[in-house]
Design brief:
53% of the residues lie in helices and 0% in strands. The protein has eight helices and no strands. α2 packs antiparallel against α6. The termini are far apart.
Length: 220
């Protein structure tokens, strides 16, 4: 009788957070992974909106596109990202976004690439349970790739010396570092999860020294 009463109380939930039976299979680290992944997707959405507002010409490369529609395209469905208008994904899409010869929507290519890469670092999971395994090295490498992407974006220019993707202030314009802060948060989130998973699995993160001369992306 006491067992049934306790179970009834547990199933009724506590406070404003309804109880979910599947949460019984979650460890504290799984809860941390859930929270990190949710926050990371929110940061990616925020970055997408900000980049389109800063680079409206990219949105107008496809007739009838809106920021809301682009956000929906990228973030509605979980898992791998593939689009007919974009021949590649992951770090290859990021590469494409800063290629001077590319004529497509650079913001779309960049954000699809970043989102796909980060999802891959989480094993394409959105919910984590007791037996979920995350690769600390992939999480760490994804953080370095975000650093590389930021470096490449800041230095990419067209034939006239204009930035291919405008982020922070440019020349005489008022300084705006909000983009760097968002990239910085994404890097910190990935690094933190890499540390958490390395400690959980009693592994050591193999650090890499970024080659400023080439700034090539690291395969996951």
């Amino acid at each position: 009788m006491l067992l049934l009463s306790g179970l009834s109380l547990l199933l009724s939930g506590c406070g404003n957070s309804p109880f979910k039976v599947q949460n019984l299979a979650k460890t504290d680290i799984d809860m941390v992974a859930d929270a990190h992944y949710r926050e990371t997707e929110l940061l990616l959405k925020e970055l997408t909106v900000k980049l389109y507002k800063r680079n409206p010409r990219e949105l107008h490369k496809v007739n009838g596109q809106t920021i809301d529609h682009r956000v929906t395209q990228i973030f509605t469905a979980p898992g791998k990202l593939q689009f007919a208008e974009l021949p590649v994904t992951g770090t290859e899409a990021i590469e494409l976004s800063v290629n001077p010869d590319y004529r497509g929507d650079r913001v779309f290519a960049l954000m699809v690439g970043l989102t796909e890469m980060i999802r891959a670092s989480y094993g394409y999971h959105t919910d984590f349970y007791m037996f979920s395994e995350l690769d600390h090295q992939k999480l760490y490498h994804s953080a370095r790739n975000i650093e590389i992407a930021l470096w490449r974006i800041a230095r990419s220019e067209d034939g006239s010396g204009l930035p291919l993707i405008v982020t922070n202030s440019w020349r005489s314009k008022k300084q705006n570092l909000s983009y760097e802060r968002l990239f910085g948060k994404l890097i910190a989130m990935q690094d933190m999860m890499a540390i958490v998973m390395a400690e959980k699995n009693q592994r050591v993160i193999k650090t890499v020294a970024l080659n400023v001369a080439t700034m090539a992306f690291i395969p996951l």
